[in-house]
Amino acid sequence: xxxxxxxxxxxxxxxxxxxxxxxxxxxxxxxxxxxxxxxxxxxxxxxxxxxxxxxxxxxxxxxxxxxxxxxxxxxxxxxxxxxxxxxxxxxxxxxxxxxxxxxxxxxxxxxxxxxxxxxxxxxxxxxxxxxxxxxxxxxxxxxxxxxxxxxxxxxxxxxxxxxxxxxxxxxxxxxxxxxxxxxxxxxxxxxxxxxxxxxxxx
Length: 202
Hints:
alpha/beta; seven-stranded mixed beta sheet
């Protein structure tokens, strides 16, 4: 099952099913944004793979003067975002393997998107060249042996899952693409899975 089919099928349950995985990332990103911007700051932000719009909704609440855009490859996710955000955010349905922004953004975010993509280098290039201040990227962290085995099962069970990285491997990928890691964390959404998350500068 491809990611469009998967997320179309899960559109009504994804927020509850993955809540512990997503909210822990959103909290970390919001805390980093609060370190960089005042509540009334005017800045531009692009969320690549915005899903149902939950992160954009929380950013819009925290930073009401920010200009927010979201992109997702699944029409059903864009529809759910529009329902949630009610015109607060400009939304675009586009293939993230080939999407190119029209202009630069102060902040670009990509949360657990890259494991779905065929062309991760295009995705990282877009983030690098179109980010003015800070980028935030997160992915699953495949480090201990049980997680390596779980990743093999995941790839077999869901065709939209292309690859995963250890923390060392992902940081090497970021360095090869000329990012500077300003801050990082390994998050624990449950007793088994781990998420690696980065505040990057270009």
